[in-house]
């Protein structure tokens, strides 16, 4: 949530005007992975529909929790800021770039991965920097830590 608090403290404060700016919180739920679990004897196990539905419910619940926490941070720090939320299922790169079509600016966090991890896993922030049609600010954690961040925040400043 460091990128969100940075955005609120540095972007929203400097844009304080009437009407207050809008902050759009975007959370991308990765599509449900399909696993073929190996079982003794070499045959695979495919989860039942009930197991798949339970996985979907858990991922939706986790997304709701992350968005609720981010929205609470926004309203606690800046009660006058209009907060909108967007939770979509899909590749985070595509979801964020799609949401950026209507944005004036994207502010997102960085996992702080090193060169090798970025090369193997890819970088959502790098993709967004090169493919979004608006400015993208990537906020690194101040301690340089590589703690994973579940939420990507996006700011849309009204009136610009």
CATH topology: Rossmann fold
Give the end-to-end Cα distance, rounded to a whole number of Å. Answer: 25 Å
N-to-C order of helices and strands: HEEEHEHEHHEE
Work out the number of β strands: 7
CATH superfamily: HUPs
Tell me the strand order in the biggest sheet: 4-1-7
How would you describe the shape? globular
Number of domains: 1
Q: Give the C-alpha Rg.
A: 18 Å
Number of H/I helices: 5
CATH top level class name: Alpha Beta
Helix coverage percent: 25-40%
Structural class, by secondary structure, is: alpha/beta
- The poorly predicted ranges are 145-160
Biggest pleated sheet: 3 strands, mixed
Assembly state? single chain
What share of residues are in beta strands?
Answer: 15-25%
Could you outline the blueprint of secondary structure elements for this entry?
Layout: H1 2-12, E1 22-29, E2 37-38, E3 44-45, H2 49-77, E4 82-89, H3 92-99, E5 106-109, H4 115-121, H5 124-131, E6 136-139, E7 152-156
Parallel strand pairs: 1-4, 5-6
Antiparallel strand pairs: 1-7, 2-3
Helix pairs in contact: 3-5
């Amino acid at each position: 949530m460091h990128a969100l608090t940075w955005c609120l403290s540095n972007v929203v404060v400097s844009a304080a005007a009437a009407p207050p700016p809008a902050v759009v919180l975007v959370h991308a739920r990765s599509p449900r992975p399909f696993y073929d679990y190996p079982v003794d004897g070499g045959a695979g196990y495919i989860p039942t529909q009930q197991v798949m539905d339970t996985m979907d419910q858990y991922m939706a619940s986790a997304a709701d929790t992350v968005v609720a926490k981010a929205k609470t941070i926004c309203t606690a720090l800046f009660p006058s800021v209009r907060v909108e939320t967007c939770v979509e299922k899909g590749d985070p790169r595509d979801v964020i770039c799609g949401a950026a079509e209507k944005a004036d600016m994207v502010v997102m966090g960085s996992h702080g991965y090193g060169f090798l991890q970025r090369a193997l896993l890819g970088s959502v922030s790098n993709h967004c920097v090169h493919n979004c049609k608006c400015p993208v600010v990537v906020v690194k954690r101040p301690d340089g830590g590589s703690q994973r961040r579940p939420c990507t925040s996006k700011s849309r400043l009204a009136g610009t």
